[in-house]
Design a protein that fits this description.
This protein is an alpha+beta fold. The protein has four domains: about 5-145, N Utilization Substance Protein A, Chain:P, domain 4; about 155-225, OB fold (Dihydrolipoamide Acetyltransferase, E2P) (Beta Barrel); about 230-310, K homology (KH) domain (GMP Synthetase, Chain A, domain 3, 2-Layer Sandwich); about 320-433, K homology (KH) domain (GMP Synthetase, Chain A, domain 3). It has helices spanning about 10-20, 25-45, 95-100, 120-150, 225-235, 240, 280-285, 290-295, 310-320, 345-350, 355-365, 380-395, 405-420, and strands at about 5, 60-65, 70-80, 90, 110-115, 155-165, 170-175, 180-185, 200-210, 220-225, 245-255, 265-270, 300-305, 325-330, 335-340, 370-375. Helix 5 runs antiparallel to helix 8 (about 290-295) and helix 9 (about 310-320) runs antiparallel to helix 11 (about 355-365).
Length: about 425
């Protein structure tokens, strides 16, 4: 069998494998695919008969790489026929028999050496396959990254700052000890305002997404702003969470507030079924030792740990910590609207700077929260507004089961209640999430 020699093939495979952190078998596979593409381009260029080559015309061709002898062969799988119409895909029965295939039969397939002459193909193969090889190697690397990190989505990794591209930080991460590092992108929206991203600085990052496409640049999208990072840090620092004695029920995080005058803040709701365990105290630790570790990792981000409760009123009151709540009125459980009454001196604390505290409490609980001054609150008037709003829809829903109330009526009811809540009430401080 003829062979096209490739001097230095063995060293080439070793060097590429080392430089790109790819196994030798993956490099060989990329070289085979590139050489096959080079042969296809060679055949198209030599097409003196102007044959029509479909996209899958060369699917029956393959390249056999001989690393020890540093060369390759091109082979084609052909079907045995009586009369040949396409010499690239078919071979005559008589020809096979002349070659020593006495037992050959029509319809069988044979693999034949179709390697071009060294002088014709050797130089052109090198030129044509160089670009294809680079692309195939990139594809191999992307595939390895996908396989290595796909199961790690939603986990936290250690990352090191490499460089900066536009507003993104390019970081190096590895899946496990001893594995080569892979580049990951930390976009502007996923960064923390208090982080100092200098070269070689290390951070814990949340692996948000592993891209599956053939895009350029890093395939890994990491985050410092995702709520999953807070969950991981607490689980890593609080043994009771890892042992499932304490569970994290909900997290609301605002790592990048809409205003630069407001700092990052997180509210986290915890609970336990063990009566002898204080879930909030377990997360805070003795003299705040446990929560301080989390705060330090998040560069001073404020964190409120609150006790979850199955009672919505208690849960909402807890969520508005550190404000002191006098009363929680669940005005409409269907549309999840509530009025929270506080003393005048607690209004600003309950609302928070630029509404951040009540905004996070609303996200944490899933309720629309209106903060009201208890001294000026009109119980009868507010009850009448909600009763009137509900009464407008009573005739329409009397004959319907609760499950049959459509989304449109529900939305209209919510809008009406919200309009009533906001009209002519300049003295009350309120927020709707």
């Amino acid at each position: 069998m003829s062979m096209v020699t490739l001097p230095g093939l063995k060293d080439l495979i070793e060097n590429i494998s080392r430089e790109r952190n790819l196994p030798r078998i993956a490099v060989q596979s990329a070289i085979r695919e590139a050489l096959l593409k080079g042969y296809e381009r060679y055949r198209r260029a030599q097409n003196l008969e102007r044959k029509q080559f479909d996209e899958d015309y060369f699917d029956n061709f393959d390249v056999q790489l001989d690393v020890d002898d540093e060369g390759f062969r091109v082979v084609a799988t052909k079907t045995i026929v009586e009369e040949v119409n396409n010499s690239d895909h078919e071979i005559a029965l008589q020809q096979v028999q002349d070659m020593g295939g006495d037992e050959a039969q029509l319809g069988q397939e044979v693999v034949l050496d179709v390697t071009p002459d060294q002088g014709e193909f050797g130089r052109m193969a090198a030129m044509q396959t160089k670009q294809v090889l680079a692309q195939k190697l990139r594809d191999q690397q992307r595939q390895m990254v996908q396989e290595e990190f796909q199961d790690l989505e939603g986990t936290v990794l250690q990352a090191r700052v490499l460089r900066f591209e536009r507003q993104s930080v390019i970081m190096a991460v590895s899946s496990s000890f001893g594995q080569p590092e892979v580049e990951a992108e930390l976009p502007k929206r996923e960064q923390l305002p208090n982080d100092n991203y200098r070269a070689n600085a290390t951070f814990k990052v949340y692996l948000k997404k592993v891209s599956q496409g053939q895009q350029r640049g890093p395939q890994l999208l990491v985050s410092r702003a995702d709520a999953g990072l807070v969950v991981y840090l607490f689980a890593n620092e609080v043994p009771e969470i890892e042992d499932e004695v304490v569970r994290i029920v909900a997290v609301a995080r605002e790592a990048n507030p809409p205003s630069r005058h407001v700092g990052p803040r997180t509210k986290i709701a915890v609970d336990t079924l063990d009566r002898d365990v204080d879930p909030v105290g377990a997360c805070i630790g003795a003299r705040g030792s446990r929560i301080q570790v989390v705060v330090n990792e998040l560069r001073g981000e404020k964190i409120d740990v609150i006790r979850w409760s199955p009672d919505p009123a208690t849960y909402i009151a807890n969520a508005l910590s550190p404000a002191r709540v006098d009363e929680v009125r669940l005005m409409d459980p269907e549309t999840r609207q509530t009025h929270v009454l506080v003393a005048e001196d607690q209004l600003s604390l309950a609302i928070g700077k630029e509404g951040q505290n009540v905004r996070l409490a609303a996200r944490l609980t899933g309720w629309k929260i209106d903060i009201k001054d208890k001294a000026k609150y009109d119980y009868a008037g507010e009850d009448a507004k909600f009763a009137a709003a509900r009464a407008k829809y009573t005739p329409e829903v009397d004959d319907l089961d609760e499950e049959e109330l459509d989304d449109e009526n529900q939305e209209e009811l919510e809008e009406l209640l919200e309009e009533d809540n906001f009209e002519d009430n300049n003295d009350d401080q309120e927020y709707n999430e």
